[in-house]
């Protein structure tokens, strides 16, 4: 007989999208039911920085400005999300740099999280195939359950 233990730590990757906000609401509900902690994560996708032209990449000041701007956006996303979580739920926030899918899976392992609750951008199978999908990567590589939320 399979025994499922209550979740103790729920990882919630956030990108500021509507779907990530809906995922946060689901995570809060689950955390309240299981008396679990929520760990918020925002990943600054460095591919945004490397998408600049070679000329722009050679401009250190521009690169630093782009990185700083993305970091500030991430801090704002985390701060706004943390403000929505009831005080009775233990909460931790982290901002990381790198490839989002890889960092999400790696963070879940480091935290010994029991569940990942995340939004899906809803790109559809064709766009997701060509553009890549963070939620597809995470579900394919995560050693723990992944709850994908998308609005209809």
Can you tell me about this structure?
The structure is a single chain. It is built from 7 helices and 5 strands, in the order E-H-E-H-H-H-E-H-E-H-H-E. It is α/β, with parallel strands linked by helices. It has a 5-stranded parallel β-sheet, sandwiched between helices. Helix 1 links the parallel strand 1 and strand 2 (37-45).
Number of helical regions: 7
Q: H/E series, N to C?
A: EHEHHHEHEHHE
Kindly estimate the percentage of residues that lie in beta strands according to DSSP: 15-25%
Distance between the termini: 35 Å
| CA-atom Rg in angstroms | 16 Å
Helical content, roughly?
A: 40-55%
Biggest sheet architecture: 5 strands, parallel
Briefly summarize what is shown.
With 152 residues, the chain is of the alpha/beta class.
Question: Tags for this entry?
Answer:
152 residues, alpha/beta, five-stranded parallel β-sheet, 5 strands, 20% strand, globular
Give the secondary structure arrangement, pairings included:
Layout: E1 9-13, H1 18-34, E2 37-45, H2 47-50, H3 54-58, H4 60-83, E3 91-98, H5 100-111, E4 115-119, H6 124-131, H7 134-141, E5 146-149
Parallel strand pairs: 1-2, 1-4, 2-3, 4-5
Helix pairs in contact: 5-7
